Fold each of these.
Amino acid sequence: MRARLRRALARAPLAPAALAGVAAVLAYAVSVLVFPYHSTNHDEAVYLQQAAMLLEGRLFLQPPVEGAFRPWFFVESARGLYSKYSPPTAAVYALGELVAGSYRYALPAVAGANVALLYGVVREAWDRRTAVTAAVALLASPLFLVQAGVFLPYAPTTMLNLAFALAYFRAERTASTGWAAVAGAAVGLAFFARPYTAVLFAAPFVVHAVWTLRDPLATTFSERTVPSLVARRVATAGLGTAGVAVALGYNAVVTGDPLVFPYQAFAPLDGLGFGYREILGYSQDYTLSLAVRSNAEVVGAFLLDWAPFGALGSLLAGLGVFVTRRRGWPWQQAVLGGVAVSVVVGNLAFWGNRNVLGALPDPSDGLIHTLGPYYHYDLLVPASAFAAVGLLALADRARSTAAARLDGRQAVAVTAALVLVASAVVGASAATATATKLEENAAVTDQYEAAYEPFEPAPPGDAVVFVPDPYGDWLNHPFQALRNDPGFDGDTVYALHDHAAEVATAYPDRDLYRYAYRGTWTPHGGEPVDPVLREVEVASGQSVTATTSFGVPSWAASVTVTVESGDARERYVLDGVATRDEATVSVVVDDGRVTPSGPVTPTRNESLALAGDDVTVEVLVDGGYGAGFTYRVVVPVTAAGGGGYRALTPSQELCTNLRACDESPVYVEGVGPDGSWLNASVTAN
């Protein structure tokens, strides 16, 4: 019985199971400790929003107010809003919520699966010892650990690619059509998730598959037999093609054209290849020379900062390639080496590798600085494998040298000492590289924590919260943690502040709040913002009056009040600026007109027509020679039943940078710079 138990334990995959467990624990820890509010890549919110939709059986969102609820990277269509990304990645995260009650539990599952699958792949290509070392190397990669804690598609897609590689290797070793079918299903699903990523990873396998078919195909046609090899190729290609067909079918459902992927519908010029590229108003001529330079920087960052064991791991991987070449290239090892080539060369055609860098001369700019070269995530597979080969080659050389020059006991002692020293050096390299990246992301999280403070320990219930849009008319960009349920009926609903009046009408029975902050939204550096969550009141009557009181500093040369409604705009001059230290101006909305009152003189018309859903009062305090600041009050107002009006508590902003007022307004509370202060309210008449 004991002998049988020992044999069972010897056969059990204890090492990969243990390493997968370590990966799962680390992934969860990174997720909750380093990325509790998500990362600087706002695509996380896209996948989580899509995951919530899948759990409710939705492919489209139907917001109750047009323009107020569009999430980041969602495409507008006649059937509703849909994600620019295909659903497999979101489905993986949805399983975490479905099975364990939290999307976050999917992250450790993916991390553990990647480690276990890499072990299996390397064991097929080399041996068990190399496989264990490769799994450790993957765990020691900053890119692996950082990406393990975020809801992005790169780790899940690599999980599918590794499943394909393992099944393909086993199919070849065992001549199993079943494993070949698994390989086809995995690569088909990977294509559905990220088509180009799957193609680049699979390319060396396809080359091997086609090359090995030369003689069997000749035999098939001459003898009318179907060799096992041909059957395996048919199984892999058939199910792989089925995955492609599913992807094209999904395209037909959401975009209306099977050959138009959702990301193309979102930005038709955001594609592969060279030449003019554009997305959301940002454009660039992506030349071959720019591609080479950009990708050289990306690959260099991978080798120096993000590879297994950091820069030392890149040296070990280079040694591993040299050792493998000296020993000869078994086809499995050659295919894995080919993955490195196809990923590096293939990414030249993708201009995202230019954009991930930010400003090219600044190594601290761009998403690569905090999240790594994630478009090259699949490089971790060959890098981990060959780093393991190189590390073990050094260990074997040290052991054989010690055994040749020393007696048995001395050889063991020296070898043990060398192993300890090598472990310390390699471990220190990995720890330093990883700690640096985690610390940089933790610094961003500190800024997020300050920004989300008004929503702790929980956001207001049975409420609508109006949020600012520092990056344009998008939800979850940047406020990823403030997401809506797919039905826009959750306990807290989030809407863009520019549509407050319409949203308030759509949710008449909910409490209303406005989220604002002082400072500039720059989580990559600088001071954290100072946030506030204010309750918004509703005033209804036959007419409404918005009253604005503000400070006038002693250095003011002139004060101009601009009132806007829709496209209409009228300007007024504040009287007696030299004798004032404050002023109060009111605007009355009545009978379809907006009429200012107070110590102001119109430059043209006394009133303007009410248009749109907002009335804006902008006060320019000008000290001359371009010095000054701007107060800005926005009153959401809309027609109510019975011929009256409904208005909401105005938003209050102060802009101290006259050249960038649309980019850097802040809420006003108390006394601001140069004695500025602002108070705005609305009443019904």
Note: Residues 14 and 20 are 10 Å apart (CA to CA).
Amino acid sequence: MENLIYLIPALGIVGLVIMVIKSLWVSKQNAGDDNMKELAGYIARGAMAFLKAEWKVLTYFVIIAGILLAYSGTTVETSSPVIAISFVIGAFFSALAGWIGMNIATKANVRTTQAARTSLSKALQVSFTGGSVMGLGVAGLAVFGLGSLFIVFYNVYVTSQGGAVNGREMEKALEVLAGFSLGAESIALFARVGGGIYTKAADVGADLVGKVEAGIPEDDVRNPATIADNVGDNVGDVAGMGADLFGSYVATILATMVLGREIVSDDNFGGIAPVLLPMLIAGIGLMFSIIGTWFVKVKNETDSVQNALNLGNWSSIVLTAIASFFLVNWMLPENLAMRRYEFTSMDVFYSIVVGLVVGALMSIITEYYTAMGKRPVNSIVKQSSTGHATNIIGGLSVGMESTVLPIIVLGSGIVASYTFAGLYGVAIAAAGMMATTAMQLAIDAFGPIADNAGGIAEMSGLPEEVRERTDNLDAVGNTTAATGKGFAIASAALTALALFAAFVGIAGINTIDLYKAPVLGALFVGAMIPFIFSSLAIAAVGRAAMDMVNEVRRQFKEIPGIMEYKAKPEYEKCVDISTRASIREMIMPGAIALIVPLIVGFGFRDVFNDASSAEILGGLLAGVTVSGVLMGMFMNNAGGAWDNAKKSFEKGVEINGKMEYKGSEAHKASVTGDTVGDPFKDTSGPSMNILIKLMSIVALIIAPHISVNSGHHTSLTNEKEVTERQVSEQSIPNPKNTDALRIVPAERNISD
């Protein structure tokens, strides 16, 4: 029965095969006339130029980080130099996931435009199929990569050495596998921040000079920044999001596997069922996401695109929940225990359902706060009538209010999943939430494809009904992009908690005492990090946008005939500004996430007598997680609401009994709000979830080096003291079943 592990990469391969089939279908669709193909060519070349420039810089990072990881793998028993290879593979797969999304998006955009000349149904089919290629590519690579590497490391470190599932050999296998996650998340952070800076520098420049100063449409061919703006939709919302959710997917599964190692499981799979379960849930979630794509269709022009997407999403969620019931009952024994907490296989299933419900509720709540026609967006529209300042105030208020319900849902989900199955329940809930990532990402990626399609329609001067169809898709895409980011930040919170629990176990600590001054100080420092991270990212957008504004103004002034369509703008110069700015400015925010845990973990060893560096690092992670989740929700939702408030004016909106349209003073105020919200929702906001997880993964990687059992902490490594603490903890009554006390391998790190 242990051969079940070979099913996991097989499911990933199935997803990749379906991805190739869908990609070939998109490529065969009509790309329109020569003018449309020329404009799409500008976008594709600009997007690939960015990726090449980004990959060149990140290659140096991967090489240096890989060398350091290889060396660190030789210094502790529970790691290996092979972690460097795992890291490089994870980084490569993450970059590949971004490239898959970028490649299909730059093909699907112009084909969606051409399809919109026929019908809304055809346009949705092309754009959503393009998005599903990205979703299946990301999920397929994650399942295949994790499954394949686990087979290799399990055979090398556990099977060949006759190691126990709960022993040092499995710990070593998963520690090496963590390198895969570290590589994925590292590339994701740089891709997300760099792509966000790129897209928003171009977007802000195009809006402020084109729409506000020159009074021309957003995607007018006369605007020098319009190509860079459309390129930005791909590098930020497609390549960046692809790498982002690839990293999230991998980190969630890995955290659950690490905790699953601690479970005593008398199963038919050699005791590794709790370790295999999250990978299999991801695999079946991938299969049901494929089925869910079949339900996304509209029949006529009046059908709701949002309802079609919701049907596909809900069908994949429900089918995954049903399949998880049978999978859990087949794989897991009836009774399980972890860290003195007893639970049943049904408790694990209930935790999975909690994760699926939390993910769905987060999407619904985010949709409410960012969708056109709802109270929050309407309130911003109304406040736009009294000027730019009141629009900004309204958007900030909506963003802050929008954190309340998601946090209540998230907190309730954490408590419920923990009540069912302890820390493993929290982790498996996150795995359940991420199970339908392929569908979530397909819905998310369809948005920027539709946005690009509208831009090409505008620049090509196509009939009004074409732009109406693409605008219909784009408006829904703005909402799905916001819900996707809400989903990502919620999953990050659960994943970070699971990674945190895994870190605590490997570091050999049992409590993080806030009464200890160093731990409390680290908590505050951790809470500050999302603010300085956001500051750097937003300031980078501001600097790059200033360069873009000056360049667009220069071209309007110095190139005669642009406004009369007699001369072509120098698009490539604007593309170059965004590319250089994004590559330059992404370094510092990314460095914070990677370096700070190292400084705290290694810099505070043997400094304080009452707190180990592992405890202090735990306080830092707690602060980063709570602050980052709130910041991410606030910025994502405020930016999304500002964006759709601006779009509300495109078809006209009634304010105080008066109709307001594009070009009105109220509309100009909404453009200002949207411009402020751009770096919120597309740069710093969506980067929060990667920041949280990446810092937790770095902590997990260095945990064996700073463990209280590693000999560095004189105040905590006295063998008698550790043994006494162990015995004391084993005497604590089980919080769920006080009739039975079971000693489980949670104390493995102390007694080995």
Note: The longest strand covers residues 335-338.
Amino acid sequence: MNKKIFLTLSLLSAAAVGGSLFVAMEPLSTQASTDVRPALQAGGEAPQGQQSMSLLPGGTSLAGSYLSSRFAQHHHDWKNSSLFIGRVLEEAPGDLTLTKRAMVLSMGAGEFDRAVSLADQVLKADEHSPLASLFATINAFKDKDYQKAAHLVDSIPDDGLSKFVMPLLHSWSQAGIGKHDTEALKGNTVHIYHAILIADFLGEHSHIESLLSKAANADEVSIADLERIADIYGHIGRKDTALKLYKEIVAAGQDSDALQTKIRALETDEPAKLFETVSSPEAGVAEALYDTARILYGDYSDESARIFAYMALTLNPSLTESQLLLAYIAARNERYEEAITHYRAVPAGDDHFLEARRQLAELLEKTEQADEAVRTLRALADAYHDADSLIQIGDIYRRTKDFKQAVVAYDEAAASFKKGVVPPEYWHLYYVRGMAYEQLGQWPKAEADLKEALVLEPDHPFVLNYLGYAWADQGVNLKESLEMIRKAAALQPSDGYIADSLGWVLYRMSRYDQAVPHLEKAVELMPYDPVINDHLGDAYWRVGRKLEARFQWQRAKNHIGEDDPIDAETIDAKLARGLDESPVVKEARTQAAITAD
């Protein structure tokens, strides 16, 4: 992100009451008791020596409702936060601080009309309130009153908000009254992009290509900006340039269904809607607000981002990107049901429908609704012949230990491709199916799939590690296993499982002194994993550190879980007799040696 944009938008999270943009952003603190004092006094003072606790109807205290609002907001529950602060405001309707807070919380809860009504009250008492003025401006755009919008934009005080958002609102308001004024939209890729949108909206295309070149070569262009630049190149007939940029995005690892659809359309000269033209100034402003929200989200300023995202959605209810962004914000803050609601709001036929439904299924699984997640994905697979949904179904079954059903889903996904040939970009299908086969004890099939994944993705650390560890655990292909796991460790030096694998393959090769430091590193990275602790205990015993070995075995036993591939009986045998005298371990080592030979 451009540093100038970052510095500007960071001001949006300011929290000083009265002079701030977002008064609702201040953290929970002891200041809450002083903030609410005017409201408490409005209900009458308590007798001397008693705490002032005016009661709302139903017995809830004003202070309790205020603090409940703060608590709810702290936990990203904006609906209830807005509800509680509204109860307090009913008892103190003239309190400016409470009105500002209620205004912001209403917008953040998606209650646009209430937020605008409160903004009007704020402006009567404080005509220089930047955020109240912004809300009023957005409402003017919603009402298609572009003259009023232009007047309000130019009257908003010059502060951190104006440096980024106001030039966008100014230029779009001017476009609304038929004027082409984008002089201020030069400083960053978002501004340049909107200068292009405005020129296209007004039918003045002469400068679009030079603006595109300037945007594409700006500092720190994001992937999202680059895709939109490519869209416009395609829109104006520069298909070769658009295709080149799309493929650069894919090469950068940012592939998507929508992007592949665009690429196929350009390569086959099929008609495709690469660029969504802006149909009205308010739709342009919605894009500008979404862009602001997107940047704030990237900076983890989620509270500010959700306010801009809701304003964008108010101006353009069909702006799916804003709906998805609100889902991302909710999910990142563990508001899963809220996120699910936003994903469900994406309609069938929308370019982002498949993505939204897959994300919905992921959250359904996360909230222990795995059966509903599978039904959601099955509907996609049946309606769209969607291999990704089938793979996701397999992943759900695999994570719930139903490996047979996982393989069925993975096989169906493989069969869905043309002539049953899995494309290289779906290498991970071999990987996940190989893991499922391995868990079913069907090692020849697992090994074949893992090898195929490695052919398609030879430098993937987790594939290298999985196959290498499986070989090491069986005592076969130890030299090849060591090379693979060393490569994986170089690619992922901070991964505890890979460090354990490296130590374990050295152990299986009887290179105990070399194994110990890698296994110690693995335990440092994953101190509660019973298998890793058990491996380190074995290595300690082999190098004569028997007291430490028993300590690690005891740790391993203490942390054995239901699904761990290790049992307490084996650990008890080691604790009682060590490795050399343990019949269980001696037999295992004999069989491993025979296999290795």
Note: The first helix runs from residue 3 to 10.
Amino acid sequence: MSQYQAPLRDMKFHIDEVLDFPAHYAAFPQGREATPDIVDAVLESAAQFAEEVLAPLDSVGDAVGCLWKDGEVTTPPGFKAAYDEYIGNGWTSLSMPLELGGQGLPASLSGFCMEIHATANHAWTMYPGLSMGGIQTINAHASDDIKARYLPPLIAGRWSATMCLTEAHSGSDLGLLRTRAVPADDGSYRISGSKIFISSGEHDLTENIIHIVLARLPDAPPGIKGISLFVVPKFLVNERGEAGARNGVRCGSLEHKMGIHGNATCVMNFDEAIGYLISPPHKGMACMFTFINESRMGVAQQALAQMEASHQTALRYARERVQFRATQRPDPTTAADPIILHPDVRRMLLTQKAFAEGGRALSYFLAKQTDIERYGSDEQARAMADALLSLLTPIAKGFLSEVCIEATSHGIQVLGGHGYIREWGQEQHYRDARITSIYEGTTGIQGLDLLARKILASRGEALKPFVQEVTLFCQRNPHGPYTAVLQQQLQSWIALTTELGMKAMQNPDEVNAAAYDYLMFAGYTVLAWIWADAARVASAALETAHEGPERQFYTGKLVTARFYFERLLPRTLALAASLRSGVANLPEFPALD
């Protein structure tokens, strides 16, 4: 059962009070139309669509799933009508440039709306969500001719986009992919191969589907440096941008999955399909990271969405369900009390709340950096934003997707047996959440990206922008309740990084052995800064807040911040001990037999 309500009060807390988006939007031309009243109206409209249209379809999509027949896919009942309403209301064009047919509002505002929609219906939201990455990739790397043909219908939502990366034999090791691209006389290419795990690869929501495909040219060198990037449409597109004849790409089957049943996860077969090169030859992976990074942030958002949805159900249930007698009883005449009065239940609820609201704040901080990097005129500020995005994106994706699994598991546990059956939707949240730590790179791969490719490869330079951010916060709030703890936590992160760098010089396997624990340590540290900042704002607001819902809201922030610092942040002590133990306790393969 879905009783989802968009958490607009908490969203506005981070947008207006913590991150000061009104001032942020006023600082660049694309943001000046996003006045507080416009932002409020957009968020309220997004909430209404999510609560009334998308949320009721979430369980339908899970129960019915997508249907495949002769290469065509039918989405669950109601999905097509919801999508038509979605594009009719202009959601796909919200943050697209005016010159491309968009509404010209900031990317961050579109991201806030996408969070609301994903919380209501994760599987459905993946269809338009992937198109955003396709649009950014084509706009960043394709020729003007391809942009003119493909971008307007994509932005309007009449067409959608996919990312076609992996193959059955390669998994996350894209250097092994075999899909071939043979040049034709007219400048196009003939793409042949098979891709798996393609989200939204085939469906009935749009008139055309544009596949962004990794493939090898005939003269490609082996490995990751021999990959190029192509646009391959489901229906061929003429010079006027009109879709025509069917191309040689079809859905071979649907994957039978643990969750997100409402989204079509496809095996896509390319049989001399006509495609167009949009990257320099053999430089496709660098261009594909435009799409990958967009998707990694989308996955982080899906993770916080699942935590929010599960928490809402668990909190409502815990207030209503009566079992056992609490130590302090509100009504001694009753046989049992609401389970929210039991400390262990509150432990689980506060864990969900701390991760969901902390994840939201992190997501919004990164959305702000995206605006600065994309629209800013100050080169130094843009460089700083880009550096923070580079460091924090793998943390947001990897950490939030891991704690999302824990949080949705708590959601089941709060409801007990009722959480394990379908009626309340908690088991669906857990199943849907599970994919977030896998796709767009597993948690271990995110850890390697963070530790090896970013921090150690830069000799620690990649960490400096975040260190500066936290140091400045501590300088401005020297007497804050968590400033000293935050400073100590930051220094522990720096010390661990130095230790790992020294160990890696002796044995490179130390990096791989430490990557997961290192990423989780980093995630808890980043959320410590997030919660310290939230506590700062809430403390100041309490000085003038009147009795009632507002005072209760800010008090709740302080309670959750305390819980985070005293109950969750200490987990980093175990993580530090674990990663310091090194690779020696991970036996070589024969010892595992």
Note: The chain has 18 helices and eleven strands.
